[in-house]
C-alpha cells in the first residue's frame, strides 16, 4: 500500500491514462467526415478507423491479467502507455487511410491494457477497506472519457485539424509513462514454468475479433446479406465456443473463466454488459438526433452532455465512500438503472420543435444515472473475489462493458433503420389526396412557392419535395424516439437483476474475499 503524496500521484496518473484511452473511443467519431475528405476515402471505409480501435480493445482487455503477470505489471503498463502514445503519433502522421487504420489498431492494443491494469493497480494502492473508494475514483475515467470525447473532438476539428485529435495524446501519454516509471512498485514477471496458452490467444483473437467486426459493420453491409458477415459470424460462434471449452479444461488459461463461479461477478458482468449498452448507445443516438434533426454542431452537442458528466464525475468518489461506510452497491445500482430509464423515457417525448431547455433535465439525469451504475458495478464485480483473482475479474468486467457498447450501438443502429421503414409505411398510408391535412399542407406549400414566382406545375413539384422531406424528418424523429424508449425499457428490466445480487451473509463468504464494505 502507498501513502501520502506518492499514493495520490499514482492515482492521478492511472486515472488520466484511463481517461485518454476512453476518450479515444469517441473522439474520432465527430471527425470521420473530415478524415474522409482529407484522405480521399469513402465514409464507409473511413469508419474502419473506429472499428479497428474497438477490435483491438476488446481482444486485449481479457488478456491483460495474464500478460501483466507474465511480463510484470509495471513493465506491461508502461509499455502499453508508450505503445498507445507512439501509435497516436503515427496516426497523426498517416498519409493514407489504411496506414491510419493500422496504427489505430496498434493504439487500441496499447489502450486496451490501460483500463484493467489501471484498476488492479488502483486496488493495490488502497487498503482493502478503501477499495470501494478506489472503485469510485476509477469510475471517473469510465464516465468522463466517453462523454468528453465528442466535445474535444468537435472543438479540435473545428479549430485545428483532425491530426491534432491524436497528437493531444502524446504529452499526456509521455507524462503518464514517466510518472508510472518513477512511482509504481516494481513487479517481477511470473516464472512459474507454465506454458503460454497460444491456442487460447488464437481462439480469443479470432472469435472476439470476428464478432466485433460483425457488430461494427453489420448494419452498414446489410448484416447477413453480405457473405463476409456470414463467414465471420460462423467463425465467432465456433471460436468462442471452443475458447470457453478450452479455457475451462487447461491449467494455464489466457482467460481464467473459473472466476465466473462467483455469482456476484457473473450477475455484475451481465449488468455491466447492459450498462455498456446504455452508456454507449446514449452517446451514439443523442448526437445523431441533435445534429441531424435539431441542427446542433458536434461541439454544441458535446456541451449539452457536459453538465451531466461533470455532476457524475463529482459524485463518483462520494459514492465510493458511501459503499465504504456500508451502503449496499445494489441500492446505488437500483437508483442508477431507475434514473437511466427515466432519461430514456423523458427524452423519447422530444419533437422537431424541441428547444435546448427540454433536454436539460433528461441530460442532467443521465450523468448521475451513469455514475450510480458504473461505481457500484465496478466495485460489486470484484467484491467476492480473492485478491489474486481481482485482476482477471476486473478484465472480464471491462470486456463486458466494451462488448455491451458494441452490441448496443449495432442493435440501436439496426433498430433505428427498421423503425424508420416501419414508421414511414405507417405515415404514408395517411398521406393521400383525400386526407384533409395533407391537402391543406399541399395547398399551403404550393401557394408559398407560387408567391415566390413559380408556376403552378413547378410549385406543385416543389411542394411534393417539401412534403417528402417532412415525412422523412418525422419518420427519422419517431425512430430516434423509439430507440430512446428501448433504452429506457432495457434499463427498467435490469432492476430485478440488481435485487437478486444481495450478498450472502458474511459467514457464507469464502475465506480471503474482500467486500466493498469491509473495514
Features:
519 residues, mainly alpha, Growth Hormone, Chain: A, globular, disordered C terminus, MFS transporter, DHA2 family, multidrug resistance protein, MFS_trans_sf, transmembrane transporter activity, transport, membrane
Number of DSSP-assigned strands: 0
CATH class call of the largest domain: Mainly Alpha
By CATH, the superfamily of the largest domain comes out as MFS general substrate transporter like domains
Low-confidence stretches: 503-519
Rounded average pLDDT: 81
CATH fold name of the largest domain: Growth Hormone, Chain: A
Question: N-to-C terminal Cα separation, in Å?
Answer: 16 Å
> Portion of residues in helices?
over 70%
Q: How large, in whole angstroms, is the Cα Rg? A: 25 Å
Structural class: mainly alpha
Order of helices and strands: HHHHHHHHHHHHHHHHHHH
Q: How would you describe the shape?
A: globular
**Distinct helical segment count:** 19
The CATH architecture of the largest domain: Up-down Bundle
Commentary on this structure:
- By secondary structure, this protein is mainly alpha-helical.
- It has four domains: 1-187, MFS general substrate transporter like domains (Growth Hormone, Chain: A); 198-255, no CATH class; 259-422 and 485-519, MFS general substrate transporter like domains (Growth Hormone, Chain: A, Up-down Bundle); 423-473, no CATH class.
- It is 77% helix and 0% strand.
- The chain has 19 helices and no strands.
- It has helices at residues 4-26, 32-39, 43-46, 48-60, 64-71, 73-93, 97-125, 131-159, 164-167, 169-183, 198-217, 227-249, 263-294, 298-324, 329-347, 356-382, 390-428, 436-451, 456-499.
- Helix 6 (73-93) runs antiparallel to helix 7 and helix 6 packs antiparallel against helix 10 (169-183).
- The protein is globular, with a radius of gyration of 25 Å.
- GO terms for molecular function: transmembrane transporter activity.
- Pfam families: MFS_1.
- Keywords: Cell membrane, Membrane, Transmembrane, Transmembrane helix, Transport.
